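Summarise this fold before class:
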Amino acid sequence: MKTADLRKKTTEELGTELLELRRAQFSLKMQLATQQLNKVDQIAKIKRDIARVKTVLGEKVKQA
């Protein structure tokens, strides 16, 4: 996920994106706990994407 792409989205779209990422993160954590997760690096990628979305969302709130 690119930061430039996130900056083009509205705050509502960013909110839904954040919700989807958090659900994906929860799902990955459950898979890790039940030892069904094959790609452990996915957790870190989702975590970084959540941080990117929160950063862009914060920037948009400050601009408004």
Observations:
- Residues 25 and 46 are 6 Å apart (CA to CA).
